[in-house]
Design goal:
The protein has 81 residues and is mainly β. It has one domain. 0% of the residues lie in helices and 53% in strands. It contains no helices and nine strands. The relative contact order is 0.27. The model has no long low-confidence stretch (mean pLDDT 94).
Length: 81
């Protein structure tokens, strides 16, 4: 459980180089002052798959920025601003 951070609950930042794959499974990210999940990349893409997770009551639920591809399956994002 990721809870009550003063910034993003989960922050993924990838720079140029090889494309990156991230898998987030059965995770709770809640009540954070930033995004529950923030993805930002420059250069090559970052691919993120979220499965069976709860991203609730954050400033933003899931923020998938430039050069990112995000798939969300059987998950919940509710109560985000």
């Amino acid at each position: 459980m990721i809870h009550g951070f003063y910034s993003h609950g989960i922050a993924i930042s990838a720079s140029s180089g090889t494309a990156t794959q991230i898998f987030i499974d059965d995770t709770i990210s809640s009540d954070n002052q930033g995004s529950g999940l923030n993805i930002n990349a420059s250069g090559n893409y970052v691919y993120v798959q979220v499965t069976g997770s709860h991203i609730n009551n954050n400033l933003d639920g899931i923020l998938s920025g430039n050069h990112s591809r995000t798939t969300v399956v059987t998950s919940e994002a509710a109560g985000n601003s």
